[in-house]
Design brief:
Elements lengths: L2 H12 L3 E4 L6 H9 L3 E4 L3 H15 L3 E5 L3 H5 L1 H9 L4 E7 L11 H7 L3 E4 L6 H15 L3 E6 H4 L22 H13 L3 E5 L8 H12 L2 E4 L13 E4 L6 H8 L3 E5 L5 H4 L10 E6 L13 E4 L2 H16 L9 H10 L18 H11 L4 E5 L6 H6 L8 E2 L10 H11 L4 E7 H6 L4 H6 L5 E6 L4 H7 L16 H7 L3 E5 L6 H8 L6 E6 L7 H6 L3
Parallel strand pairs: 1-2, 1-3, 3-4, 4-6, 5-6, 7-8, 7-10, 8-9, 10-11, 11-12, 13-14, 13-15, 15-16, 16-18, 17-18
């Protein structure tokens, strides 16, 4: 058996079910080997799209996804998606061919680029070490939640696997648990708090963390919020208050800013989640729990840092708290707070004045009507831009696997590919993607992929015919905006040319075909070219991002 065939067999045996990519000469054979052993290969039209599909699939499935790339240019085409995945600690294995001869046109420092993007760089070093190298890379993805770039030199993959080569696996190490003294200090902070709020981030989506956090919150009297990437985690908890940060509803922002103890669990407590610190009261205590000691206190000073896994820390703290206090505390869980959470927590419960006019629909009106029309079993993905809070907050999601937020790198153009990867990870749910007109056109290559794969993707274009974030940042009365304002385009016609169903929406009545499309059990995408009103910068850019 050649090394290239053994790589595909090994990864399938380790549990890889789906790979994404664009096949070239360098990755042709090991991609075929992976498919021959039962894995599905999703052929994208561009490596950048493939990278983001794989990232989204891994987030929404809980599996390690593989991204298969050609050496050199195939690899560099995928770098933005790889950087997003690395920043988000996605369990993504980038399997890329590598040219090792400096005379090759494809020769570049692929390992150096991986490390610069925040990924782990590894290599299949030789036929003798190939199986161990692959297993080690896979284990880093699965057990450390890291994005790994595994370089496969072309000359190595074409050699014979030695008869004595042995397969192996790497077992996970146990997550750290804070020292007893730190747990005792944490208990003291909780006992001194009257209005504690826990903010759960991506680290709280690990096995067992949700249940452990809910038990600790019940014992502490804490309200349960999430960062954007963990949205939906506590939807079924009566004391869940949705997303903390730029997307917070007025009530959520009020409750978080009124807390006297804010605890981040696997959450960076960054400018997105804390609105540049404005959501943390002047006299509030702050604690942070993370498996990465360098993450603790990185974005703001904390009164207590706990190095440990979310579930492990929560369980130990619950036991110590109940042993000390003898029972659960009421804390922030008062009847009045409970009533307000039930009546006015979500943006869909907040009154506003519909400003639709002149053939353009208010994006709030658009989003609320879509939320009413669409089935509850959905998976919502978003691109980046001035529009992004409307689908993020007005479209409800069923749980933490119903919202895919590839925004750690804040790159425009990832939305379509994000929606595709998320849809393949959760095929029983209606996939909905919110994009701006700029991001839609950047990522339009993968619209053909959605049609070819018969994915019933609902693409909602918030089309204001400009790069709205830049326009509103610099202002209509500032410097010339010619570079960021464009003529209105018939994006519905463009979508039909790709094989999609498509409509143009200027008022809510124009959305009627969406209901008909859903009722048919669709097997091809629908694109909504919504001509939205865009008179000012969105509140989440103004408040959370400093624009």
């Amino acid at each position: 058996m050649l090394v290239r065939d053994a790589i595909g067999e090994q990864l399938a045996g380790l549990g890889v079910r789906v790979a994404f990519g664009v096949v070239g000469s360098g990755n042709f054979h090991y991609t075929n080997a992976l498919m021959a052993h039962g894995a599905r290969f999703v052929a994208a039209r561009h490596e950048g799209g493939a990278a983001t599909m794989a990232d989204a699939y891994a987030r929404m499935s809980g599996e390690v996804a593989v991204l298969s790339l050609h050496q050199g240019c195939g690899y560099t085409n995928a770098l933005t998606g790889i950087a997003e995945a690395a920043k988000s600690r996605t369990s993504l294995l980038v399997l890329t061919a590598e040219a090792t001869e400096p005379t090759s046109n494809f020769f570049i420092d692929q390992a150096g680029m991986a490390e610069g993007a925040g990924a782990l760089a590894m290599r299949v070093r030789s036929p003798e070490t190939a199986l161990v190298d692959v297993a080690r890379a896979y284990a880093a993805c699965k057990h450390q939640q890291r994005t790994v770039v595994l370089n496969v030199p072309i000359d190595v993959q074409d050699r014979e696997l030695p008869a004595h080569a042995r397969r192996r696996t790497f077992d996970p190490l146990g997550l750290p648990q804070p020292a007893p003294g730190d747990i005792a200090r944490f208990v003291e902070l909780i006992q001194a708090a009257e209005r504690p709020v826990f903010v759960a981030g991506r680290g709280s989506r690990a096995d067992g963390a949700k249940t452990a956090l809910r038990e600790l919150a019940a014992a502490s009297g804490a309200l349960l919020a999430t960062s954007a990437v963990a949205r939906g985690l506590f939807n079924d908890d009566p004391w869940g208050i949705d997303v903390s940060g730029g997307f917070s509803s007025p009530l959520t922002a009020e409750l978080v800013s009124g807390a006297d103890l804010v605890v981040g669990f696997g959450c960076a407590l960054n400018m997105w989640t804390m609105r540049h610190g404005k959501l943390i009261g002047e006299h509030a205590k702050v604690a942070q729990v993370d498996i990465d000691p360098e993450a603790i206190g990185r974005n703001r000073d904390v009164d207590l840092g706990l190095w440990g896994g979310v579930a492990e820390t929560a369980r130990a703290t619950t036991a110590a708290l109940r042993e000390t206090a003898g029972g659960d505390r009421r804390g922030y869980r008062t009847p009045e707070v409970g009533r307000r959470i039930r009546s006015s927590l979500r943006w869909n419960q907040v009154d506003f004045t519909d400003q639709s006019a002149g053939g353009r629909i208010d994006p709030r009106t658009l989003s609320m009507e879509l939320n009413r029309l669409l089935p509850g079993e959905r998976i919502v993905s978003v691109d980046s831009g001035n529009f992004l809070g409307y689908p993020s907050m007005y479209l409800d999601v069923p749980d933490e696997y119903g919202f895919c937020f590839t925004q750690a790198f804040q790159s425009v153009g990832l939305g379509l590919a994000t929606g595709l990867g998320a849809a393949l990870a959760q095929p029983g749910r209606l996939p909905v993607v919110g994009v701006g007109d700029g991001g839609f056109l950047m990522g339009i290559t993968e619209l053909e992929t959605a049609v070819r794969l018969a994915v019933p993707l609902l693409v909602v274009i918030y089309n204001d015919a400009m790069y709205g974030a830049e326009v509103h940042h610099f202002g209509f009365d500032g410097p010339p905006l010619d570079a960021v304002v464009f003529p209105d385009s018939d994006l519905a016609a463009i979508a039909r040319g790709h094989g999609c169903e498509a409509i143009t929406v200027r008022e809510t009545a124009d959305l009627a075909p969406v209901k008909d499309w859903i009722s048919t059990g669709p097997s091809r995408p629908m694109v909504i070219d919504a001509k939205v009103l865009s008179r000012e910068g969105s509140w989440w850019l103004q408040e959370a991002f400093g624009h």
